[in-house]
Amino acid sequence: MSENLKNILEEWKGLEEEYQQLQETHRMYLKKLDELSKLQNNCSSSISRQRTRLKEISQLVKKSSKGSSEEDARILDEIKEKIKIRPNAFFQMEAFLPKKNSLYLSLVLGNVNVTLFNKQSKFAYKDEYEKFKLCLTVLLLLFSFICYFFVSYRFSDVILNFLLVWYYCTLTIRESILITNGSRIKGWWVFHHYISAVLSSVMLTWPEGNLYHMFRNQFLAYSLYQSFVQCLQCYYQSGCLYRLRALGERHNMDLTVEGFQSWMWKGLTFLLPFLFFGHFWQLFNGLSLFRMAQLPECKEWQVPVCGLCFLILFAGNFFTTVAVVRQKLKTRNQKPKSL
Ligand code: COA
User: Which among 55, 86, 151, 330 would be 20 to 30 A from 260, CA to CA?
Assistant: First the structure.
């Protein structure tokens, strides 16, 4: 046997051994995957069973509360308190279990699993979402700036509006994935992005004319301001995310949360005036468009539809932001040492 063939055979033997090992590891991996999916099914069905039984027991507790002795009432109150916090525990458990996609996600992505199974990947996804928002917002800021100050072509406005439509549609998908993974984004912010996508698409179809030019600069200035506020908001929200990650736990934290809270309040009090100013600008845009719709030369349906979108955006943003701030103030006053 030639020296060359000997070398090849030796190399091949080593490779074969490694391949056998790889096969064994892969077999174990498949077995564990199988076990994992059984455990996931177990947990999911156990959670739904618990939910039904919890509903039944809370009805029983409600019935028994009437006319019970003092001692019994105390025990029932304790059970009631425990029942109250269970749904939250289920919600946190479900964030790590596969679940059926929402209608929107199944329409857009089909029936693909979008649950991320560990905290690091959830944080990484959220982090990437914030970065994506920031990059696109800076791009939109630059684009609105150029359209406002330098170029006044319908074509450049179309590109800006198309970018806005694409941006908001993408956000709705990413946010639905975040919600599946346990994010507490309020439904309004997702709905806000749907309305904004509708608004930008209607702007896209608004034919050029006197009325379009009357509103163009106001809209571009508003886009510029909104992108600026969104940059501040991204900075605040990724700051919250980094600090929460540094604290280790997302929804279950100890004393060190005080540092986070003071940072959060500083950020929020800085941000709020800008946010409220933006909301009133939306109201102003809505009212201007409705006034425009009453002009005799106004034939475009886009004018009242955009006006309506702005009014909905104003009302939703304003009331949700007030509710968020009230809720945060209440939590701070109730539990000064925990979140
Ligand atoms: N868009 C997307 N996600 C949002 C959001 C928004 N506008 N507001 C809050 N969230 C997310 C948070 O990131 C958090 O997610 P997590 O559970 O994955 O960590 C979750 O919702 C809960 O956040 P919450 O604690 O209620 O609020 P916050 O401290 O993160 O932010 C505000 C509070 C007021 C700064 C924020 O809601 C906001 O910027 N609102 C105003 C938006 C607006 O009006 N835009 C128009 C400007 S002209």
Answer: 86
- The position carrying tokens 């050029």 is 208
> Cα–Cα distances in Å, from 75 out to 56, 59, 79, 106, 313?
17, 15, 6, 45, 47
**CB-based pocket (< 6 A), ligand 1:** 126, 178, 183-185, 189, 226, 229, 233, 236-237, 240, 271, 275, 278, 317, 321, 324
Query: From ligand 1's centre to the CA of 200, what distance in Å?
Result: 21
Cα distance between residue 156 and residue 170, in whole Å: 21
Query: Residue-wise pLDDT tens for the chain (339 aa)?
Result: 788 999 999 999 999 999 999 999 999 999 999 999 999 999 999 999 999 999 999 998 888 877 778 888 888 888 989 999 999 999 888 888 988 888 999 999 998 989 898 888 998 999 999 999 999 999 999 999 999 999 989 999 999 999 999 999 999 999 999 998 888 898 899 999 999 999 999 999 999 889 999 999 999 999 999 999 999 999 898 888 888 777 765 454 444 667 777 888 888 999 999 999 999 999 999 999 999 999 999 989 999 999 999 999 999 999 999 999 999 888 877 754 433
